[in-house]
Specification:
The complex is a heterodimer of chains A (253) and B (168).
Chain A (H helix, E strand, L loop, with lengths): L9 H8 L5 H13 L1 H21 L23 H19 L1 H6 L3 H16 L9 E2 L3 H12 L13 E10 L4 E9 L4 E8 L10 E5 L2 E8 L2 E7 L3 H15 L2
Antiparallel strand pairs in A: 1-2, 2-3, 3-4, 4-7, 5-6, 6-7
Chain B lengths: L3 H19 L2 H18 L9 H20 L20 H16 L2 H12 L4 H8 L3 H30 L2
Helix pairs in contact in B: 1-2, 1-3, 2-3, 3-6, 4-7, 5-7, 6-7
Classes of the chains: A alpha+beta (253), B mainly alpha (168).
């Protein structure tokens, strides 16, 4: 029986390796292989290749899927996103700027811009239902390390649970001169606050809290240890001040 | 799964395939992202009831082909094995073998690599792989057969020097 077959179609060997032969044919192939050690070895190697491919690459299956891959809503995340985001940014900035033109012209300078950018970022991201943040609080350690690295400073995401605000997560944003970080917090009724942080290496000084009302968004902002902070929210000035104080104290224990 | 969730279900395999195809973490993530971007945009063009997996992998194949074409001017760029992301840390001996396999994969033609991965890793049928790649089944078979044999020979050759290469 073994002597009747000298060779086997190559196609059948591969179909055997890939488990795609009907049972009867598979048995025939096995009989053939048993009588042809050289071919058997070759088939063994091919089987091993498939096994190794799985060993090598199956772990990729377990990697968490970036949230922006899960949705056709790509406005802020895809490569085209930055264009759309920038346009919206400018439009929003323009609208806010126009609405706030009185306030903006009376106080001058960079800090107002900073507060305004923080307010825009708040207005853009805090209503997001599905993608408020890039990295969620579940990966807080990674989030803080990542943003610290990108900003080149030692960031912390202060815990505000005692004030009723849970950390949602954070994201990296383009600032005027480089990367900016935004942490987002949420109260149980859904009210959100954002803490917007940029590095301010040039400035050693610390400042007191300043307040800026940008449309419906209130912003407390200050500089501390070479980092500029802006806390934005629509919860009212008093509540916002309370949280800003807590943030400051938690960052300066 | 005739809705958008269907796409999401295929993301992990697409990512695995991209990683195996490019051998580079960042390039693979870009490939997945570009693929999904197109897929979401064209999702309405996908005919319900047809094979969504083949449709998605075909998109990835086209994106990948464009990149290969774009890279052709920079052919023969050496791949630093130390940079190739090995997602696993199995026992030492096995890891050597896996590194050998990964290195050998890079030396195959892109066409052979695609076929070997679609069939050996993604476990597609020959018909499905043919559909993804837009070639006749016969072509898939000949690439598969040549590719597996080349891979075997490359690994035989590689094992003699594996010890040295892995040091870095």
């Amino acid at each position: 029986m073994t002597s009747t077959k000298v060779s086997l179609p190559e196609l059948d060997l591969h179909a055997y390796v890939d488990g795609r032969l009907p049972e009867k044919r598979r048995e025939e192939v096995e009989t053939f292989l048993a009588a042809n050690p050289q071919e058997q070895e070759r088939v063994g190697v091919y089987l091993q290749q498939n096994k190794m491919l799985h060993a090598l690459f199956d772990p990729v299956l377990a990697e968490p899927i970036p949230p922006q891959w899960r949705t056709p809503d790509q406005r802020w995340n895809w490569r085209l996103g930055p264009v759309a985001a920038a346009l919206a940014w400018i439009a929003l900035g323009g609208a806010l700027g126009w609405l706030l033109r009185g306030e903006l012209t009376e106080s001058s300078g960079k800090n107002v811009d900073f507060a305004r950018r923080a307010a825009i970022a708040h207005a853009v991201y805090s209503p997001e239902v599905r993608h408020p943040v890039e990295v969620t609080a579940e990966q807080e350690e990674h989030l803080v390390r990542w943003l610290s690295k990108r900003l080149g400073g030692d960031l912390k995401a202060p815990h505000l649970v005692d004030l009723g605000y849970e950390l949602v997560g954070g994201r990296l944003l383009p600032g005027e001169q480089g990367p900016v970080a935004q942490f987002m917090y949420q109260e149980k009724n859904g009210q959100r606050l954002t803490l917007y942080i940029k590095t301010d290496a040039s400035s050693e000084r610390e400042t007191a809290f300043r307040y800026s009302q940008e449309g419906t968004v209130g912003v407390f902002y200050w500089i501390d240890h070479r980092l500029s902070y802006a806390l934005s929210g629509e919860c009212g000035k008093e509540e916002l001040l309370k949280v800003a104080n807590a943030v400051y104290q938690k960052l300066n224990p | 799964m005739d809705n958008a969730d269907g796409i999401v279900a295929h993301i992990p395999p697409l990512r695995r395939y991209a990683r195996a195809l490019t051998g580079d973490h960042a390039a693979a993530e870009d490939l997945v992202q570009d693929t999904l971007e197109r897929a979401w945009k064209r999702f309405r063009l996908w005919r319900r009831g047809t094979n969504l997996r083949a449709w998605l992998f075909a998109i990835m194949h086209n994106v990948f082909l464009n990149q290969v074409k774009a890279d052709q001017g920079r052919q023969n760029q050496a791949i630093d094995i130390a940079e190739v992301n090995l997602p696993v840390a199995p026992p030492q001996d096995e890891r050597l073998d896996l590194r050998d396999l990964n290195r050998a994969l890079r030396k195959l033609s892109a066409e052979q690599r695609e076929v070997i991965l679609l069939i050996g890793l993604e476990q597609m049928s020959y018909d499905e792989a043919a559909k993804v790649l837009g070639v006749p089944v016969g072509t898939v078979m000949s690439r598969l057969s040549r590719g597996r044999e080349d891979l075997r020979l490359l690994m035989n050759r590689g094992s003699a020097t594996a010890q040295l290469k892995v040091v870095k």
